[in-house]
Amino acid sequence: xxxxxxxxxxxxxxxxxxxxxxxxxxxxxxxxxxxxxxxxxxxxxxxxxxxxxxxxxxxxxxxxxxxxxxxxxxxxxxxxxxxxxxxxxxxxxxxxxxxxxxxxxxxxxxxxxxxxxxxxxxxxxxxxxxxxxxxxxxxxxxxxxxxxxxxxxxxxxxxxxxxxxxxxxxxxxxxxxxxxxxxxxxxxxxxxxxxxxxxxxxxxxxxxxxxxxxxxxxxxxxxxxxxxxxxxxxxxxxxxxxxxxxxxxxxxxxxxxxxxxxxxxxxxxxxxxxxxxxxxxxxxxxxxxxxxxxxxxxxxxxxxxxxxxxxxxxxxxxxxxxxxxxxxxxxxxxxxxxxxxxxxxxxxxxxxxxxxxxxxxxxxxxxxxxxxxxxxxxxxxxxxxxxxxxxxxxxxxxxxxxxxxx
Length: 406
Known about the structure:
Class-III_PLP-dep_AT; arginine biosynthesis
């Protein structure tokens, strides 16, 4: 039996939704691979990837199969019981990383919340109540819960919600001297993104991460890597820490982990995990069988030499063409990032106009992103077809041409 659906349009958003978002003027209704169709049947190429989420594009057969198979078996049982997909996915994450223990939840913010709570609990248990300070980077982004938004180094997101959570310090990113000056015997954790995503697609320098690791070791503090945006093959390694060769104590993953289905994970070691005893932390939906079944399919597809090598090859295609566009039209000063997380830094003449570039691209039937007002961001599917890359960047060049000649 089919239920007749009520017709909706973009104007409905402004009537029924809380106005904390300003979505584009069209509504996507169907996707396949790196193509999306809106209500009018218009076809767009997707280089936004749901903000680095749709790691295998839209409606990937392996993910559709995993989801539908699990949907016919078991949807939810809570954490009063365990389930097979959660245990299988945990094994796969442990086998592929430094981790020995996994905590599943639903979003990057929740994974970071768990990571920060774990760091404070470990310090409390081992050293007492005075060791609770967290050091994070300016321009970082770690989520929207009250704790994570305060750890994030962008006050525009944390102001106006009452008293700030205490014990959090922010220092400039990639500035080891500033980090060293901030760390003390009260520091319980240093929290870093290997590549700042929302902060403008800014990669960490190797010496910076190595120095952070050494400072944490010397001060009995934990090193936490937020890999919500960089994880699951996005950089050409399964996780960015593997590219740098710097191993954290705690790692958070979300976004690409479910390929579009909500799931997140906090990864850590046996020694640290034992501090979260029964009752200290929880989540209703964490480890949901459907989410974990999809997560299994994601890691099975991505964590192969062929797919990871393909990320590097696609990076080279994107970067070469974007540099050519930037030079020809004088719109970019730098193309930075790793793998298929790329940031195009706008030149002085176009500073603050990332939204204008986004709008111009949409007119050319292309979906892209921004990372702040001065950086245009690309986070496409890791398996985007070369033909789609070429056509999408042709559309992007037409958008840039129209914008620069306006």
